[in-house]
């Protein structure tokens, strides 16, 4: 299969939302419009976005938030369940790392994908912290 990578923030956000529902990043069908608005704003306000396509189908996605001087964070790394284990995820991450080779990268990973990120060079940090209140107010979790 031919996989085409695109470095652009201008995405078809209906496709993005469908991909996020398919991996349960999003849960409630009734909130689709609200999710779509929040997600398109998040992508527009990110510094670097890479998407992967097979034909017209969006099959993978990742975005980077960074100060472009010291730190960078990876968000929304996702590959469509139908197209896993084709190295799409690895290539997406590598594009992020080579876009900002001099920055210190961070990310949050669920238990079941830590092995994937370890293969791309990340290590687990036992002191990561977050505000519980943030989870309660973020539209993605409510
Ligand atoms: C994690 C994810 C992005 C991996 O994408 P992918 O395109 O299937 O991964 P790749 O084909 O690039 O795999 C690269 C390597 O990681 C390994 N790998 C892939 N998924 C893995 C997993 N869940 N656990 C451990 N290793 C994994 C592959 O076997 C491969 O190993 P190799 O280089 O030795 O052959 C994908 O499974 C996904 O979207 N998961 C759901 C969404 C999610 O949880 N994202 C993370 C949010 S923080």
Bound molecules: coenzyme A
Give a count of the beta strands, DSSP E runs of length 2 or more: 5
Mean pLDDT: 97
Specify Rg, calculated over alpha carbons: 15 Å
What's the main sheet like?
5 strands, mixed
Task: Summarize this structure as a short list of keywords or feature phrases.
alpha+beta, binds coenzyme A, 142 residues, 5 strands, five-stranded mixed sheet
Structure summarized in a few sentences:
With 142 residues, the protein is of the alpha+beta class.
Report what the structure shows:
By secondary structure, the chain is of the alpha+beta class. Helix content is 33%, strand content 24%. It has five helices and five strands; from the N terminus they run E-H-H-E-E-E-H-E-H-H. Strands 1-2-3-4-5 form a five-stranded mixed sheet. Helix 1 packs across helix 2. The protein is globular and about 40 Å long. The relative contact order is 0.16. The model has no long low-confidence stretch (mean pLDDT 97). Coenzyme A binds next to strand 4, helix 3 and helix 4.
